[in-house]
Amino acid sequence: MLSALLYLKLTSIRNWFRQRLGRLRRPKYLIGAVVGVAYFWAFFFRPMFAPNDPRAVVPAALPPEAQVVLPGLAALILSAVAVLVCWLLPEGRPGLGFSEAEVAFLFPAPVTRRGLIHYRLIGVQLGLLFTALFFTFFSRRWSFLGGNPLIHAAGWWVILATLNLHTTGAGFVIGRLLDRGLTASRRRWSLLAAVGLVVGFNLALIWPVLRAPEAQDFTSLTAVAAYLRPMLEHGVLPWLLLPARLVVTPFLAPDGGAFLRAVGPALLVLALHYGWVLWAETPFEEASLAQAEKRGARLAAFRAGGGAAALRAAPTVRRDPFRLAVGGRPEVAFWWKNLLSTGSYFNLRIFAGCAAVLVAGGLWLDRQPDLLPFRSMVALFAGGFASYVLLLGPSLARQDLRSDLGRVDLLKSYPLRGWQVVLGEMLTPVSILTGLFWLALLAAALTFAPPAKLNLTLGLRLAITASLAVLAPALCALQLLVPNAATLIFPAWAPGPRTRTGGGIDVMGQRLIFVFGQMLVMLLALLPAGLVAAGVFVVVRWIAGPLPAVLLAAPPVLAILLAELTAGLWWLGGRFEKLDLSADLQP
User: Fold this and answer.
1) pTM score, whole prediction
2) How many domains does the chain have?
3) Domain residue limits at 564
């Protein structure tokens, strides 16, 4: 029976590949596939097969002290992820994620419960193998860890497979606890209490070697590793982290011999997890059937025009983001509607709470001169996150026309101008990205300690921060014009209810085209504003000094950005009014 189930899984994978290859006959997929293959060849495969360049800079290996600490630190991170994802977040009963077709044909078939588990777990491991290869491509520059791509691919698979099996086993345990009357909230508070007790007990044991960090502890990797090593090697933490340490050690192996010595214990931990899941007595059939029904209902709602949110989760009742008045601007109604489709953590209270924490933390760090290197690290991270929000945030915040493409016929029936619909659809991602940018900007402003030679006074830093905060909404809106324009011009490439095609290298190529086009268009849009800002800054600085120059350079830049945004909304509104989705979706 197991061989028949394995044949079914391999045949499904073969048909999946044939379907992907067959759709390349359509130009919209062929172009994306060519770009995706070119991207992988240029950034991943070509450097692997190219001869070594003597002029290339080879990253230095980790210091010996850091090499000793790294496995324990990686095990701590993996254990924290396992506790959060496997034990703290889940709410419902366990299920093995069978599809509706598998439930319909396999559950009534003469297949044992253990055979069904074998079938599902083997199928998941095959998918994890491709994920491990994908992770290896992106981690290939971690040459300071040693090893080679083959070792890293095998190490990634061991980590992902063990984490997946641990998630399944934890789901079975949670299901048994639910059967005994333990609610999700009680389970979470009990787990947090247990974690707190373990942390407190471990702190009591390592108290003699525990000390507050000092400035010299952040001067180098060796210093950081020397500071962390006593905390990772004393108390009960080494014993608690032993399974996770065994799992991550193959990935960190510097050569083939070390990998062979480490992979045996890691596979033993993997086998123990497999046996745990296989011999668990928790029933999963009803939960798997319920999951398949919910997945089918969400897919049907998606294809009927329910948007991408229908695929992510079942509809839940949540509080209104704000009180919607009976009368007012129609764009606000779009804003209210799209905010309801976002996560519950995107609300004003969460943002205000994060801002309060950042202010308190920044003021505390300002009174700790010994933690200046740590402040610099926080400021660098905050600046990088702010740049990420501006550059790549619009590709992720999709609560606009991209998610409502299937409702175009309904939107066009409203007695509204096209630009009003486009503006209303864009308000939600603009507000989310602006809030995230403001938080990152606040963290950077509170922790940035400029060198004395830059002569950045407090007033000048506040003026720069205020100017960037004022310009942020316009910058985010301009960034969002590009993907929404691409959705209206190339609706066949936009993922939507009528165009849902899943993943694949062709879809990734399409997204790369959009990202590169977005960067090019934004560069051209920011060029006039940048030239005007530079001219105003130079003239005013020569006359009145740097502080007035910064304050007076922001208004003309904002005016230019708003003019470009107005022109873009007007043009997109006209394009929206002329959009015929049935004609534009032809290949």
Assistant:
1) 0.64
2) 2
3) 328-584
